[in-house]
Amino acid sequence: MIRLQKWLKRECGQSVFLVVISITLLCATAALVVDVGQVAVTQGQLQNAADAAALAAAKSLPDATSAKNAASQYAALNGVAASDTAATTPYNGNANKVEVVCKKTVQYTFARVIGLNSKVVSARAVAEKSNASGAFGYALFSGGVNSQMGLYTDLFEVTGSVHSNYTLQMNGNLQKISGNLESVSSMSSGVTYLTVGGTCQASAIQINGNASNINVPNRLQSPASVITMPNFSQDIKNEATAAGTAYMINSWENKVLSGNSLNVDSSIYSSGGIEISACEFTGQGSICAEKSIKLSGNALKSTSSSAVCIYSVNGDINIATDGLTIYGTLYAPNGTIGIYAKNITIYGRVVAKNIIITGSNVKIIAGSSDLNFLPGGTVSLCE
Description:
alpha/beta
């Protein structure tokens, strides 16, 4: 009997020991799954915050103070306190680069059992600002290397320069270009009254019509340079996500933007299409859709200090409503911008892979401040 009691006591002690070990192992496993998972989630959130903060800060460069304030503001929008955000500019001696580091302390739950209380997680991003040139240096730009720019229009006027990365064909009654008219390949015109204020340049130039009605004094028969178009849609998406103005919808759906006083200081992004009608813009920024953008109403206005980019990443922008006035730059680097209506005035730029204009009385007026949505240039992540 005594031996049995001793054996039971011994077995009971062993059971308690095994239970303690099992609980410890269970907690360690929970720590591995829960706490390490929380670290991974926080790391991803911090990286998004650092990316958005760096892009926002880069827009203010080379003003270091404004850049740092912007970094703190956009990090805070992503849940990172100003005290946990550090912005450094100039970065590596470059005043057009900014580094943003975001950190956060993750408090462990189960890992405390094995003596671990917390972990400091950090993420960094470096963004740079480059000059806005290239395609956006033109009032009208066609970037497809196998795409003909077609200007089949009467009463057509461009304040600025025109460029095609392939061929350029013009037909109609009266067309005026105040700046240069450039084509990488051939340029052909059947316009009755044609005026080019700058240089007409192409590998082959053919201008038909009565010489007395043709005012193209400067002609250079040499291919113009091929110019690339930038892609800054990811930057817009990051900025919009940080500001809460990103709309993640189905690719076949449209986000409708209507009414007055649409502020674009925080850019707007749609994973589908966008329909814009009867809007008045304020601020400086972009309206970006992965798919096509539809413009309607009779005016897309802006205040005198506004600069708006209407940007279709992989779709088209078509204007088929007569009498529309647009204050903003139209951009479709992988699609077509088509102007098929009459009495259209665009205060900004028209830049796309393909350009087709068949409407009459169309004016494109590029100004000195209509690219302020890219304050002095484009911004992008470089590290």
